[in-house]
Amino acid sequence: MASLQRLKLLRDLERKVLWLSAWTIHHANHLRPNRDGLKVGGHQASCASLATVMTALYFSVLKPEDRVAVKPHASPVFHAIQYLFGHQSRDKLERFRALGGAQSYPSRTKDSDDVDFSTGSVGLGVAMTLFASIVQDYVRLKALAPEGRPIGRMVALVGDAELDEGNIFEALLEGWKHDVRNLWWVIDYNRQSLDGVVDDRLFGRIGEMFELVGWRIVTLKYGKLLETQFALPDGEHLRQWIDDCPNSLYSALVYKGGAGWREALNRDLNQYPGIRRILEQHDDAALHALMTNLAGNDMQAVLDAFESVDDDTPTCFIAYTIKGQGLPFAGHKDNHSGLMTLEQMAGFKQGMGIADGQEWEKFAGLASPAAELEAFLAQAPFNSEGRRRTEAPTIAIPAALPRPTDKKASTQEGFGKILNAIAGEDSELSRRIVTTSPDVTVSTNLGAWVNRRGLFGHTEAADVFRELKVVSAQLWRKTPRGQHIELGIAENNLFIQLAALGLSHEIFGTRLLPIGTLYDPFIARGLDALNYACYQDSRFMIVATPAGITLAPEGGAHQSIHTPLIGIGQAGLLSYEPAFVDELAILMRFGLEHMQQPDGASIYLRLSTRSLAQPERTLSPAQEADIVAGGYWYAAPEANADVAIVAMGAVTPEAIAAHESIVRDFAGAGLLVLTSPDRLHADWLAAQRNRGRTSGRVERSASPVERLLSPLSRDARLVTVMDGHPLALSWLGSVRGQRVVPLGIESFGQSGDIPDLYRTYRLDAAAIVDAVARAVS
Ligand SMILES: Cc1ncc(C[n+]2csc(CCOP(=O)(O)OP(=O)(O)O)c2C)c(N)n1
Ligand SMILES: [Mg+2]
How many of the other CB atoms lie within 10 Å of CB of 421? Predict the structure, then answer.
């Protein structure tokens, strides 16, 4: 298509996208009944600054294989574009931010219009594109991607204030180490954040930082109108004036309009005849249009910039834009959540040439004929294959994973040995597992797996130590075939890398089984990224070890207390804390399968470095099912027993010892070992909800925890013990109204050995026996 014709159509669509985004928000706030008095909100100004860039990208530049993270508060622009493509309904736009309608921020799981990456917590979507590009290379270099799939660009549309989030810089460094490619970050440089105008000095440094890590910078500063005036006599003074203009003054003048610009230019540049001529030739409206003609809001300039890049070098486009461009509050520092008033909207609508009742019409008010616009949309490269979400078959998991048989072992050692045994197999399972860790690969027991399966890198890298025959337990060769992605110490990066790996089936058409390891306390460091990964329904396994105060001598800073509560509270994440290695093998097997199920979840295994004597036992299928369901009777109680000890994880030996001593006084007391209060609790609540619907069938619909506790007497006492916050187990008393004495950790720990610490924090056998005495007194 002739480029002038394309430009005309794109300018029309840009107007429409701006209109629809503003109208969608206006409709939600002013034209829908409001039942609770709460502000509905939406960001008309934030949408406006990106309308040009997104129109150019989606209707002309992007290809089906490209994947995009859209700045969260530009969600209405995204939905408007999908509406024009025919992938979003008018009904859902009318219900923007209402139940079942288009989401406030683009959501992979809640929106129906082909969202690639969810966004919302600023900064995380941006980093997601970087880690997705690593996944793209990972599956491409191993020939796991479907044959013939072209390489896509991973694109982030970034608010300029998002760059204050440190996770972006953590990701940039990691990306440099991994030689990331095919990455485009388009910064909506409107020089405004939520609270105000961004510091002028900050952005001077941003470009340098990108260049430092090997990125290309493409700056889109002035639009074509301004460039034309700059080329005239004295034009360079105008350029210099704008270059020197502080962000806050420029924003204020944008808001004031033509008269304001005239006054300022007359004051500062009146001595130049060329500038006087420009002022004479432009009335106030034209002068305003000229002075606000920044490249990020100039279609031709935007197209030129995107089309100037044709290699795979990661590229940062710094697009100068105006927040609220084209709207009455353009440039105003308080416009972030500003909404047009009814009068302003009426004026805007008139300016757009839209008649009453035509607000949702796709082509109303545009200069080009509807048929031409339809045809243009139909041939947009991005839309040529319709929706772009991929699928991939599940990977079969063998009926049992290898089970180490050591008489004494920690769950962390067991984990390392199980993976090492899988690494030695030539199987689909061993090929699909990909591991990653933030510089704790060796100390979380992944070393043996990496020795066998290698580090992932774009190119073959030598193992210098090996070549020089320096003895080391770690034989790590970096190759494109490697299956471990080694990260620097940044837990944010770990979780975003896992988020990207765990969506490979839906983004790149091939399934991976990602396993990430870290120290349990540092889950908190990456918690928002973990939440973000789960929010997108990404599927992976995290193995967190060591945990609790049981890592003893390593001290308080590394002791995790509340992570079991995170395991229970985090949606989309099913958590387990096994005590013994045979339990672990069963749970890893279950986890690898469960994380591939449509209604499954990611898995969190909280492991320990404490070496425990392993029970000599052969578990029956029913016992294995109980371990997966969340718990089993290690020592069964007698019918109507009055006391039971409930233990989880590394403190189970103390519970066993305490149990042996109390059965003398309380014959028939039981010892219940839990593997997942998370699962037991969830199934208990689900059973209660279902019961409401099928009343009268209590017994058959009893949940696992109700069945587990049913042999005990009605007013039996439970003593719960775990290495973590006791709240994770104390809810057990509500299941049948039985009194609980919970033991666990409530304050920061300190260095010590296990006997000292367990005594000090009341986790030892004596404390458990004491708690039993208190429970029954
Ligand atoms: C992690 C996080 N903190 C705070 C917010 C609230 N918030 C939403 S948008 C925004 C400012 C964004 O400014 P910018 O990125 O420049 O976007 P603009 O609206 O100017 O395009 C803030 C602080 C958020 N969404 N996420
Ligand atoms: Mg901004």
Answer: 18
Q: Does the pLDDT value for residue 744 go beyond 80?
A: yes
Q: Which of 393, 314, 453 is nearest to 144 (CA)?
A: 393
Q: By alpha-carbon position, which residue is closest to atom 17 of ligand 1?
A: 159
* The token pair that represents 167 in the structure block: 């996770």
Summarize pLDDT for 422-458 with one digit per residue, the tens. Answer: 999 999 999 999 999 999 999 999 999 999 999 999 9
Ligand 1 and 133: CB distance under 6 A: no
What CA–CA distance (Å, rounded) separates 276 from 225? 17
CA of 336 to the centre of ligand 1 (A): 9
List pLDDT tens digits, range 599-658.
999 999 999 999 999 999 999 999 999 999 999 999 999 999 999 999 999 999 999 999
**186, 191, 193, best to mutate for ligand 1 pocket (most atoms within 8 Å of CB):** 193
Q: What is the pLDDT of residues 370-428, one digit of tens each?
A: 999 999 999 999 999 988 999 999 999 999 999 999 999 999 999 999 999 999 999 99
Nearest to 379 by CA among 85, 152, 12, 67: 85
Closest Cα to atom 23, ligand 1: which residue?
Answer: 194
Q: What's the one-letter identity of residue 104? A: S
Nearest partner of 649 among 624, 681, 675, judged by Cα? 675
When the pLDDT of each residue in the chain is averaged and rounded to a whole number, the result is: 95
Ramachandran angles phi, psi of 473, nearest 5°: -75, -20
Q: Which amino acid is at 397?
A: I
List of long-range contacts for 105-108, beta carbons under 8 Å, 24+ apart: 105/72, 105/73, 105/75, 106/70, 106/72, 106/75, 106/78, 107/535, 108/503, 108/506, 108/536, 108/537
Nearest CA residue ID for atom 19, ligand 1: 46
Instruction: Tell me, in angstroms, the distance from the centre of ligand 2 to residue 159's CA.
Output: 5
User: What pTM does this model have?
Assistant: 0.97
Lowest mean pLDDT among 2-11, 54-63, 470-479, 591-600: 470-479
Is residue 126 packed enough to be buried (19+ CB in 10 Å), middle (13-18) or exposed (0-12)? Answer: buried
Residue whose token pair is 């009318």? 94
Beta strands in 305-392 (DSSP E): 315-320
CA 70 from centre of chain: 13
> 775 vs 715, 743, 758, CA distance in Å?
11, 12, 20
CB 230 within 8 A of CB 290: no
Identify residue 378 by its one-letter amino acid code: A
Question: SS3 for 495?
Answer: helix
Structure letter (DSSP) for residue 647: E
Give the neighbor-by-neighbor strand order of the sheet with 717-721: 631-635, 670-674, 643-648, 717-721, 739-743
Contact 580, 615 (CB under 8 A): yes
> How far is 505 from 389, CA to CA, in rounded Å?
9
Q: What is the DSSP letter of 556?
A: G
Nearest alpha carbon to residue 520 among 492, 491, 545? 545
Sorting pLDDT into bands at 50, 70 and 90, what band is 463?
confident
Give the residues across from 479 on adjacent strands.
456
Q: Cα(271) to centroid of ligand 2, in Å?
A: 35
Q: How far, in Å, CA of 76 to CA of 669, rounded?
A: 61
| CA–CA distance, 453 with 433 (Å, rounded to integer) | 10
Joined tokens for residue 4: 């002038």
| Cβ 408 vs Cβ 653: under 8 Å | no
Sequence-distant (≥ 6) Cβ neighbours of residue 385 within 8 angstroms: 64
Question: What's the CA gap between 576 and 559, in Å, rounded?
Answer: 18
For 371, phi then psi, to 5°, come to: -60, -40
